[in-house]
Write a structure and sequence with these properties.
The protein has a five-stranded antiparallel β-sheet with strand order 7-6-5-4-8. Strands 1-2-3 form a three-stranded mixed β-sheet. The chain contains four helices and eight strands. The chain folds into two domains: 7-79, GMP Synthetase, Chain A, domain 3, CATH 3.30.300.70; 90-159, SH3 type barrels (Roll), CATH 2.30.30.100. By secondary structure, the protein is an alpha+beta fold. α2 (50-67) links the parallel β2 (35-42) and β3 (74-79). The longest helix is centred in the middle third of the chain and has 18 residues, at 50-67.
Length: 165
């Protein structure tokens, strides 16, 4: 399981985001002194506007006011995943196959927990990555966190809207 997403909050927030016509990419709670509840969303075409983020923020804020799942003060942050987006779902890995990623595993593979290189293959249960140390097959259940690395190829593809549709 990818640990960046907070399961109970994710399950609570996802129906609201889906009802608004968007997809929930990630829910994360961060910060030591004052918590930040970070929600990343995107439209079905991969895009999202500032107005869309504001709409999601209003609806999620209303839900959180009623449900009160976070007992301390927190800041709600709703944003797009951005170009160096986290990869949290199988479909994210499929969409960005061929591009460079960084990931950390929960359990070490050959003594290694951090990997960086092109994402070469994606199945329902395993991704393959080519690093300087060699090729690795990593089970989704072992991925703690993963994200895209901004490269010239990624920038070119995003400018051509290849990744946004």
């Amino acid at each position: 399981m990818i640990l960046e997403k907070h399961p109970s909050l994710h399950d609570m927030i996802e129906p609201v985001v889906t009802d608004l016509g968007f997809e929930l990419v990630r829910v994360a709670v961060m910060g030591a002194q004052k918590a930040v509840l970070q929600i990343m969303v995107e439209g079905p075409d991969g895009n999202i506007s500032i107005d869309d983020c504001a709409k999601v923020s209003r609806e999620v804020s209303a839900l959180l006011d009623v449900e009160d799942p976070i007992k301390s003060d927190f800041v709600l942050e709703v944003s797009s995943p951005g170009l160096d987006r986290p990869l949290t779902r199988v479909k994210d890995f499929e969409r960005f196959a061929g591009f460079e990623i960084k990931l950390e595993t929960t359990e070490a593979i050959n003594g290694q927990r951090r990997f960086k290189g092109p994402l070469t293959k994606v199945t329902e249960a395993v991704i393959s990555i080519t690093t300087q140390e060699g090729d690795f097959d990593i089970e989704f259940s072992n991925i703690q966190k993963a994200k895209l690395v901004i490269t010239d190829d990624l920038i070119k593809a995003s400018q051509k809207d290849q990744l946004l549709s």
